[in-house]
From TrEMBL:
Protein name per Swiss-Prot or TrEMBL: Putative secreted protein with PEP-CTERM sorting signal
First and last residue of the signal peptide: 1-29
Pfam families per UniProt: PEP-CTERM
Transferase found in the keyword field: no
Domain Ice-binding protein C-terminal: 225-246
Keywords: Signal
Naturally occurring in which organism (per UniProt): Sulfurirhabdus autotrophica
Length: 249
């Protein structure tokens, strides 16, 4: 009987190890779907883009720069020729345990210190959207993005002008860059958010990306419930244990 129990405990351990490995794989980085900025009017402070998900559904993105009194602002410009692709040599700044791909295809650029509010409106409620940023601040010049929403820094690294693995820092909802490039993730579900850039530093680029929408993956999240494939593996393992136990009797 002791030997029989020993085999059973060992086999259960194997199944549990396989189960944990499956959960670890499920938690690996995933692709995000970035904004294709289709139109931009920098002088009027507006831009429009679209994010396309694998099921061909789309989420539109409207950006606007406005002054505190509501009058239109402006921004530096829009790059619309697959500009992030040129940053692939600096891809480590944008890849993380959550994000498996670099931003693509284009970006908008700002100049700080304009006393403007930068607003983004999404056509659907988005779970944990991300923002990719390039060249926030300069060596010796800290530039701030003061957001109205909480976020987490996912990754950062070198860029064309330098940068480093610690050039982006965070203080509450304030992102501080000293030639910082990387990706941040807003914590929660959003269709609107905004930020200001009080420091007068010229040229920093950004874009937005999503993994899914609230409609496609409703709350509460299903991450605490094993996926069907995981349940199948557990079932096969337990069935094998039952079969083996019958044979050994």
């Amino acid at each position: 009987m002791r030997k029989n129990i020993c085999f059973k405990i060992t086999d259960i351990r194997i199944v549990l190890l396989a189960f944990c490995a499956t959960l670890s794989t499920a938690a690996s980085a995933l692709p995000y779907y970035y904004t294709d900025w289709t139109t931009a009017n920098p002088a009027a402070g507006t831009a429009h883009g679209v994010m396309t998900l694998p099921d061909s559904s789309t989420v539109t993105v409207d950006f606007s720069a406005v002054y505190a009194n509501g009058s239109p602002g402006s921004f530096v410009g829009a790059y619309t020729a697959s500009d992030w692709a040129g940053w692939s040599v600096f891809s480590s700044a944008y890849l993380s345990s959550q994000v498996s791909n670099i931003p693509f295809p284009d970006m908008l650029q700002l100049m700080g210190g304009q006393n403007q509010i930068y607003k983004v409106h999404l056509s659907a409620a988005i779970k944990d959207p991300i923002m990719a940023i390039v060249s926030l601040g300069a060596n010796g010049t800290n530039t701030h993005y003061n957001f109205d929403s909480p976020f987490t820094i996912l990754s950062q690294g070198n860029d064309y002008w330098g940068g480093c693995a610690t050039c982006l820092t965070q203080s509450g909802n304030d992102l501080i860059g000293n030639e910082g490039s990387g990706t941040i993730q807003f914590n929660g579900t959003f269709s609107d958010f905004s930020w200001t850039v009080p420091t007068g530093e010229y040229w920093h680029g950004f874009t937005f990306g999503i993994r899914t929408t609230l409609a496609l993956e409703p709350n509460p999240p299903s991450s605490n419930v094993p996926e069907p494939a995981t349940l199948s593996l557990m079932g096969l393992g337990l069935a094998a244990l039952v079969a083996k136990r019958k044979v050994m009797k």
